[in-house]
Amino acid sequence: MFTANNLNSRQPYDGWSLDDRNPKVIESSMPLWEWFYRYYFRVQTDGWHHIPTAQKILIVGSHNGGLAAPDMYMCMYDWFKRFGTERLVYGLMHQNVWSVFPTQTVVQCGAVRAHPKMAIAAFQRNASVAVYPGGAIDVFRPHGMRNQIYFAGRKGFIKLALREEVPIVPMISYGAHDTLFVLADFYEQAKQLHEWGIPWLFGVDPEVFPIYIGLPWGLAIGPLPNFPLPVQIYTRVCPPIVFERYGREAACDRDYVDACYQKVLMEMQQELDQLVYHAS
Length: 280
What we know:
By secondary structure, the protein is of the alpha/beta class. It has one domain: 3-Layer(aba) Sandwich (Glycerol-3-phosphate (1)-acyltransferase). The chain is built from 10 helices and 10 strands. It has a 7-stranded mixed sheet with strand order 1-10-6-2-5-3-4, with helices on both faces. 38% of the residues are buried. The model is unreliable at 1-8 (pLDDT under 50).
């Protein structure tokens, strides 16, 4: 069985341990998050009564606003404000991020490697897990798709929920994708240049190569970090999604996984459409 302590060769804060999470670091970050929450993004939120009191859940979110992903941090602030820093929740962070950004603080706030073994180990501790299936492709989707739930066909989170028999609680937002303006994605062109010998930005395949307008660059080319514009953000925790079948057999049934994936997409899109309508 995988545990957080059986990787003796791992480096500190590399995302392969659940024990690096530090409630004191989270508490020290709360005043800064609160300032952004109240004054910079002026967050309005609802639906937090849908979070079960003690049950472990898989939180599934849609990414917005470039690498800054401000809606994600605002939801983190809401979670800790409402449930305290001791209630365990871990966020699955994409593999590429570990090669690019300093990770000590985010790991101490609960980030772990986006790997099924890490999620399963967290569930074994009765912790909840947060995942953003669309990753970089979602967070840098063109501005014209800003009100669209887009997971790029990635269904690993469905298999995880079915195997571990946990409900999915969707978390959506509106406004965060206006904190920068993604004009287009030129990944295929950048991939061609890479094949001609031009190295990838940061030395890793970014999966997306956007051109966007935003701070601090003005016009940015590639998945560069950004500082979000002060746009009001609306977040919503949606009702839990419970499937008819669970277990390993269900997780290995491709047609059933596809049907569950479409159900999650449809329900999240309906909730986002309502949120956009009421916020506009």
